[in-house]
Amino acid sequence: MKNLKLASREQNKRTIVNVGGVEVGRGLVVIAGPCSVESETQTLETAHAVKAAGADMMRGGAFKPRTSPYAFQGLGLEGLKILEKAREETSLPIVTEVIDPRDVSWVAEFADVLQIGTRNMQNFALLKEVGKSGRPVLLKRGMYSTLEEWLNCAEYVLSEGNPDVILCERGIRTFEKYTRNTLDLSAVPAIKELTHLPIIIDPTHSTGRLSLIAPMSGAAVAAGADGLIIEVHNKPEEALCDADQALTPEMFSGIMSQVRPLKAFLEGRGSVVS
Ligand code: PEP
Ligand code: MN
Predict the structure, then answer these.
(1) Which of 46, 49, 73, 80 lies 20 to 30 Å from 31, alpha-carbon distance?
(2) Rounded CA gap, 14 and 197, in Å?
(3) Ligand 2: distance of its center to the CA of 5 in Å?
(4) Distance from the CA of 9 to the center of ligand 2, in angstroms?
């Protein structure tokens, strides 16, 4: 991958992204929370629940890139204020999506990590803006993108002077319809060969099926992923966005009790990837 200068594995030591003391790239970092921020009660209850289950960071969208313009688009500023409250109460760092370059500077005042969603992976104006934001960036893989295209997008952020990029594989489009997307787990060891940046897995959007989230979380850890990002809702049946794939706090807790020991076991035996 000739175009890669800063993202390339060569010459560069593995990057550890420090988010308020949470180190992405060391051990297993778990980010959890609702698809979208819907209300203060929903967000705070979910935040406390994921914290109790052992999550390291809280997720929640205030700006939602929806397929339909008539679907819930997120609470915007009000949502960010609710997330701020969740951080105050739980001390979990906040991961939230930004979808418009014009919003980056002020959203960065609320977010600990700025998420770039799959639909915006190649929004170069947005990438340049988050590159200047001074905040770590969670860069999701475009659902139609190759690893090379993805890493070139990371290069956009890095080349603006922001070294803190976390990659996230969230499934790609294939002919398969049973799952929402196809989780490309080979991306984990491949990305480790190609770049020094950490990579986490989103078993929620990649499968879109509750029954597959736990097994694919375990598989992601076995493949060497640096973390997971999982959707959890205090009352999944009432979720305004991605209700079918939201775990209850109890289900999430069950996954946590499997993935942490699995990671510890693999680390004890020497990592599966270097
Ligand atoms: C999300 O994380 O809520 C989201 C919209 O994800 P993606 O961009 O991967 O679809
Ligand atoms: Mn979602």
Answers:
(1) 73
(2) 6
(3) 32
(4) 31
Angstrom CA distances, 199 to 5, 14, 175, stand at: 18, 11, 25
For residue 139, the ligand closest to its alpha carbon is 1
Inter-residue contact 133 to 59 (CB < 8 Å): no
Q: How far is the CA of 25 from the centre of ligand 2 (A)?
A: 24
Q: What is the pLDDT of residues 135-188, one digit of tens each?
A: 999 999 999 999 999 999 999 999 999 999 999 999 999 999 999 999 999 999
pTM, to two decimals: 0.97
Residue given tokens 């994921």 in the structure block: 50
Closest CA to 222 of 188, 251, 195, 256: 188
Residue 274 has pLDDT above 60, yes or no: no
196 lines ligand 1 (CB under 6 A): no
Distances 120 to 67, 100, 158, 217 between C-alpha atoms, Å? 13, 9, 17, 24
Helix (H, G, I), strand (E, B) or coil at 8: strand
Residues forming beta bridges with residue 8, ordered by sequence position: 195
Structure-token pair, residue 95: 């991961």
Residue keyed to tokens 């390291």: 56
The confidence score (pLDDT) of residue 269 equals 79
